[in-house]
Protein 1
Amino acid sequence: MSGRNTFYTTTPIYYVNDVPHIGHAYATLACDVMARFKRLDGFDVHFLTGTDEHGQKVEKAAAAAGMSPQAFTDKVSQSFHDLLGVMNYSPDNFIRTTEKRHYASCQALWEKLVASGDIYLGKYAGWYSVRDEAFYAEDETTVGPDGKRRAGPVNNEVEWVEEPSYFFKLSAWGDRLLEFYEKNPRFIAPESRRNEIISFVKGGLQDLSVSRTSFSWGVPVPGDPKHIMYVWLDALTNYITECGYPDESNPLWRFWPADVHVVGKDIIRFHCVYWPAFLMSAGVAPPKRVFASGWWTTEGQKISKSLGNAIDPIAVTNEFGVDPVRYFLLREVPFGNDGDFQRRALIGRLNADLANAYGNLCQRVLSIVAKNCGSVVPPKGALTDEDKALLGRAQGLLATVRAEIDEQAFHRALTAIWEVIADANRYVDAQAPWALAKTDPARRDTVMWVLAETIRRVTLLVQPFMPDSASKILEQLAVPQEARAYTAFDQELVPGTALPKPQGVFPRYVEPTKAAS
Ligand code: ME8
């Protein structure tokens, strides 16, 4: 074992009832940035994503597609797997709940819950939303003008269900959950979600139905296979299946408890109430943190299949490039808030932040170095206060970005980095190296060294967000692979190092002109 600090982050596992859209790409992006940052920062990282393949919703979607559930899930799961390449994600594994090891893990957890005395057989009579795969109390539902009863975060339809069911004694866990939230103030973020969960638990918990008998696509209950485990009990367990549960001698068990489960705001009740209660009942430590991301709309509208307005990650990255889309998603909206995906805003950021600010800084600096400094890292003379100020701000960025990443405040990390980029652009204008070429070439060289060194530091921090673009820029600064981790953050550029020919990394986006008139 490595002896390094571990970091384990997970995405929600995606239902395979539909193909992925930008909303699905979002949680995985946040995890990817954290995983990449932590790897560069010396952590022993495990990053997990995957697909949630059981339950009534998936069974119905398979039937509607005229396919067997297994063939259907194989097909749709592949489209989520393909998304990893499309968005340049770097998970360590992709889990599917139809894997054998996952059945074993769910059944082992079930047996622990039984042994704890938290499972009993009864009969469920109440409301169920197949879309949410969630049970709702009568007072959580409302009947709309169309006469349909609805409930839940997106007001999906519910149906009446009456069937034999095993229950988990969730009602007995309220006080222990409240105590757990109290002792672990970082467990639920952002703060508004924490308040929402605490008041839900304070309102009193009902026992939770954890098996169904009206369909068969799922993990059978040990010893009573007519019962299929509730899909959320099955799905949540994926996070420990990955670590080898119940075999705590599995080397991957070192990653449990997870550092951050990233989830959508619609599924926090499952992650912040049910999941820690199941784990505590089974004698397993709950995760350290659950961060709830907001939801994307597109051009002001809810993303919906019927409107056909879902942003397809393949189409949008083909048009704008992977890195600009990654940047936009995390820069445009504070993580945790809802956001509106507007094409105009994406183009605005691409041109202003990437092409004009960052791209132009790299381009100006690297082309002067290539043309006027002999294509090598220029010599560094005595530093002025202005030089030291800029270098100091770039140096201070690592601590700032590290702290923001630990809060999942990606937009603030990016804002801090772009402030230094703006400082560097102002410094170029103020120092006017093109004028120094005639009056004081040695000073010009120092200015160019300060700029190249600032770009190096900034770009080391851009790596987790825009890996390919950062890599191209670091290549142009001849920063070798082994000097790109944060242990090498203070390893300055060495004057005289030969540099390759510079090339633009962030072209401006120009709307394709309408057919020539
Ligand atoms: O909930 N914007 O799966 P899922 C942002 N299988 N995020 C969005 C979004 C949008 N427009 N639409 C969906 C499930 N999401 C369960 C998870 S975890 C043990 C099981 C997010 O495919 C949504 O909030 O319905 C959720 O976090 C994720 O996509 C997966 O949704």
Protein 2
Amino acid sequence: MEFKKRILVTGGAGFIGSHLVRLLLEKYPEYLIVNFDKLTYAGNLENLKDIEHKSNYRFVKGDITDVEAVKNAFNEYNISDVIHLAAESHVDRSIEGPMDFVMTNVVGTVNLLQCARDHWKGGKDHIFHHVSTDEVYGSLGETGLFMETTPYDPRSPYSASKASSDHFVQAFYHTYGLPIKMSNCSNNYGSHQFPEKLIPLMINNIVNEKPLPVYGTGANIRDWLWVVDHAIAIDEIFHKGRLGESYNVGGLNEWTNLDLVHYLCDLMDKKLGRSEGASRQLITFVTDRKGHDMRYAIDASKIEKELGWKPSVTFEQGLDLTVDWYLNNQDWIDSITSGEYATYYRNMYEER
Ligand code: NAD
Ligand code: TYD
């Protein structure tokens, strides 16, 4: 079969990547989807078990910093487009060790850009969609929202590496005319998220009646979006967004960390048949994250006006689905919270 597009999705075995791969495979049987992933601690082929048999799906185990591996994938599948999600994605890990973030997020992105440029040879019928974060804009005070025009002001090693990769993507557009698009999204939540991130970590600890580590006073604010709505936004931008443009994606859904943890405790007490207030007793205030950004919040009016995108579920609906997924997939959690992660988590927690 001649495929209409042959899309290289990097990081497709991760949290957001696996949701995007599933959406693309189901919606576009006429596209070949090549999932290129190194399978770091955060990548898990179990995330794609339900769709790996599809005839338009291929998996390549590879590192985006490896020039030959990326070139080979472009050649073997005659890649027409890239949607780039592969990254080191956890702020706390970037504080402990920034170099992996520089390698994958910066060097890996530039390598992909180079390979795309070499393979497409100036052709315009291609798209390189770079998936980024709102954290590149820095930290907000009590008011205001991040717009696409907000100056970059990254403050953690993670956000500095993502900001750098964004700049390289724009540089390839302006210097070489590489056909790029970008999206900068707020915090995602949903099924298959590695339980080092706030929401799955809290769900897992509530289930196991372990302490719930809230950094500082819990007053920091994040703007939460259901991962499926992010995947839908990427699909819209990839197909209909303007070349060279970036689009902010967010949920208009700001919560302080403490309010969110309270909400999860109460929701799960009901689902688990525990007495009212039981899980709140597990909350433990721990030493704050170094350089902890105070508030993130997105102005998503550009994508809404230009592409008609808006979140499809409320936070309450999305969280309900998410908690149910974790409760019904305890094996998934158990398989990744043993071994290396268990040691990492214990060390992190003991340090605080
Ligand atoms: P994740 O950590 O769950 O997954 C990352 C994936 O990339 C994993 O499958 C991993 O194996 C793969 N990977 C890492 N290094 C690689 C390398 N050198 N070569 C090939 N593959 C490699 O991350 P996520 O939360 O799904 O985030 C995906 C993307 O979306 C990232 O670029 C992140 O910056 C961005 N983003 C995430 C959020 C969020 O809330 N999680 C919000 C906005 C943007
Ligand atoms: P996180 O999920 O790591 O995402 P990000 O740092 O990229 O926003 O953290 C979300 C918020 O939750 C952030 O303000 C830090 C806080 N947090 C805790 O209070 N306790 C935790 O155990 C974790 C992982 C995060």
